[in-house]
Amino acid sequence: MDTNKILTADVLDIVFEGRNKSYGAYELRKTYSSRLKKALLITGLAVAGIVASAAVINNNKKNLSQQIDNEGVKITEVEMPEEEKKPEPIPEEQKPQEQPQQQLVEQLQLQTIKSTNVVIADDDQVIDPPPTQDDLKNLKIDLQTNLDGAVDKGIANPAKILDNGTGIIPEKKNPEPDIWEKVEIEASFEGGPKAWESFLRRNLDADVPPNNGAPEGKYTVIVQFVVDENGVVSDLKPLTHHGFGMEQEALRVLRKASKWKPAQQNGRLVKAYRRQPITFEVAQN
Question: Where are the alpha helices (H) located in the chain, listed in sequence order?
Fold first, then answer.
C-alpha cells in the first residue's frame, strides 16, 4: 500500500493488505458492526413484545374478575331424580293400626275363677257353687271368673330342672380319654434306669446298624407304645426312620420288655402312651 493511503485507509484494510480477502474472514470483520446493531435491534423488539403481551394478559384477567364480581352468584333449583324424591305420605286409613295396650294385656290374661267365701247353706240356697279342686289346679283365683284366657301351667323352676329335685347340682366333668397323652407320672420300666440299661445290654444287638451298612454316627430311635393299668405293653410303633434295621431291632427288644409300671393320673393307675428312646452308636471300623 502506498504511504499516502496508509493515513486514510481502514485498519482492516491494512491488516488484510496482500492477503486473500475473498475467503470470508475479511467480509465477516467488515460487516461485524452492522450485524451487531441488527442483532441488538431484534433482541430489543422481542423483549418489548414479551412485555407488551404480559401486560395485555394481566389486563384481561382483571377485567374478567371484575365482570364475575359484578354478576354475583346465581342459585337455581335443581329437580331431584325420580329415585331420590321423598316418598309420598301414607294416608291415615292405610297406616297399620297399633293395638291398644289394654288389648295386649287382655291377650296375656290367664283363665281365672271368682273367689267365694265359704258359707254353710242348704242346697236349694246355693246360687254359685264353689270351685272344685280340679278347677283350682288350672285356674287362678281372682275377683271374677274369666274362662277366655290362657291356661296357667305354672312357672318353671330352674333349680328343680337342674338338680332333679334333689337340691344338689352335680358338677359336670370332662370325659376322660381312653388312652392318656399326658399324665402326671409316666410309665417306667420296672427297677428304674439301671434295670433298663442292664436289660438293653443283655438283649439289644448293637451290631445291627453297622452290619446293614450304617455310616459312622449316633442314632436315637424313638418307639411309641401303650402301657395299660396292669403294665402290659401294646401298639408298638416307631416314630423315627433311620433305617439300617435300627427300628426293627428296637421293636424286637421292646416286645421282650414286659415289666413296666403303669402311668398315674390323679392318684390312680391309667392307660397311657410311652415314648422310649434307644440309641445306637456306630463307630469307625
Answer: 3-6, 11-15, 25-30, 32-71, 101-107, 133-138, 158-163, 192-203, 208-211, 246-256
Q: Is 149 exposed, middle or buried (0-12, 13-18, 19+ CB in 10 A)?
A: middle
Q: Cα(56)–Cα(50) distance, rounded to whole angstroms?
A: 10
Q: What is the distance between the alpha carbons of residues 182 and 193, in angstroms, rounded to a whole number?
A: 21
Statement: 188-282 belongs to CATH 3.30.2420: yes
Residue 256: how many CB atoms within 10 A of its CB? 12
CA distance 259 to 192: 11
Sole residue written with cell 430311635:
221
Task: Give the residue carrying C-alpha cell 450304617.
Answer: 214
3-state secondary structure of 110: strand
188-189/260-261 β-pairing: antiparallel
- Give the whole-angstrom CA distance, residue 77 versus residue 42: 58
pLDDT per position as a tens digit, 25-68? 767 777 878 888 889 999 989 998 898 888 888 777 666 555 54
Report the half-sphere exposure of 67 (CA within 13 A, side-chain side): 6
CATH 3.30.2420 maps onto the chain at: 188-282
